[in-house]
Structure formats: C-alpha cells, structure tokens
Amino acid sequence: MTLAKICGLTTPETLDAALDHGAAFVGAVIFEKSPRHLEPLQAATLFDRARGRAKIVAVVVDPSDLLLTTLALGLRPDLIQLHGRETPARAVEVRRLTKAGIIKALPVREAADLDVAGDWGEAADHLMFDAKPPEGAGLPGGVGHAFDWTLLAGHAFARPWFLAGGLDPDNVAQAISVTGAPLVDTSSGVESAPGVKEPARIAAFLSAVAKA
C-alpha cells in the first residue's frame, strides 16, 4: 500500500480535504520564495487540526537554527523535510534541535543523481526523490516537473522513500506502477494556480493512490 503526502497546504479547506481523504502526511512550506509559504505562527495555527490524524511535515530550505527552534516550539512537526543543500551532518543537528524525524529531498535528473542516497542511511528517516528543477528556476521543488521514473525501477534504499515531482491525479497510479514507490508526494499537481490548492484535486489524487 502506497501512502501519500499533500504538501504546501495553506488553508483549512484544503488541509481538511487532505485529512478527510486519507493523506498520511501533510506539509507546511516555510520558505519565503515559495508561493506556498507560511509564516511559522500561521503554520502552527493551521496545522494543529492535523495533529494525530496525519504526520505534520515542515518543509524548509537550508534553515537557520533560529527557524528550526521556532518551528519546534510552535508547529511541533513530526518531520522536517530538508529541501536545500543540507549535509547528513547538518541533518543530525536538525534532528537534535527539533526532536523531529528527517525527510531529505534529493533532486534527480539522471541515474548518477541516485548515488548520493547511500550517504543518508543514518541521517534521514525518509528520502524523497524529486525532479531536479531547471536552471534558474529559483525554487528547489514544487515546479510541477517529473523525471524519468524508470531510473528508480528495481532500486532498493536503506530508508522508506517518497516519489515527488510532477505527480497529479492522472499520472500517480502509473508512477507507482513503474517505480514501486512506497510513498508519494504532490504539491503543484493538485493546484489550479501556483499555491492555490483545489480540494477536489486533492481528493482525486488520494483516491488514485488508494486504488493504485
């Protein structure tokens, strides 16, 4: 059974859609350059309704110690998703500061990009294979691009892993079939515009995952 994460949620209606339709993980993006950015206090207020119903994930990019401490005290996430240039050593520090688990996003465009996964066996609880954004994109993820899923076919990794990048209600079943992904993640794939989630698309995505 594949579990799903809906990322970049910003409203009660869309968070409720994710929770009501069976998302196992819900993500708050704390990154000012993202159209899905929430201030830490906003995130803490919104995501409190998810506690105990799904794993709460704080998505950050090369976060400062101050930001991590703020999130740990307010949002109290179950997991921190590192989406920047963080090293395994930094991930160990993040875990110490937040007492949260670690998801490490790894950008993928070609087979060689998977090689770094082995470096994260001890430092991360989960890996996330996301499409490497085009040069100059300005964002490390959430840009709606997919990579060649066959790169993951037949691979085994030391940690449970997410497939991300360009997944939507129409293609997620195929993506799971090709890769065998135990976990999938979507953000832009359930939006009508950057940062604007649609409850119906969230429901359709989660239904497709459940049937895959």
Description:
The chain is an alpha/beta fold. It has six helices and ten strands, in the order E-H-E-H-E-H-E-H-E-E-E-H-E-E-E-H. The strands form two sheets. An eight-stranded parallel barrel has the order 1-2-3-4-5-6-7-8, surrounded by four helices. The chain has a two-stranded antiparallel ribbon with strand order 9-10. The longest helix has 13 residues, at 199-211.
Brief characterization of the structure:
With 212 residues, this protein is an alpha/beta fold. 27% of the residues lie in helices and 21% in strands.
**Uncertain ranges:** none
Return Rg in Å. 16 Å
Our count of helices gives 6
Shape: globular
Give a short account of the largest sheet. Answer: 8 strands, parallel, barrel
User: What is the chain-wise order of helices and strands?
Assistant: EHEHEHEHEEEHEEEH
Beta strand count: 10
End-to-end CA span: 8 Å
Please outline the helices and strands:
Layout: E1 3-6, H1 12-20, E2 25-29, H2 40-47, E3 55-60, H3 65-73, E4 79-82, H4 88-98, E5 101-108, E6 126-131, E7 161-163, H5 172-179, E8 183-186, E9 191-193, E10 196-197, H6 199-211
Parallel strand pairs: 1-2, 1-8, 2-3, 3-4, 4-5, 5-6, 6-7, 7-8
Antiparallel strand pairs: 9-10
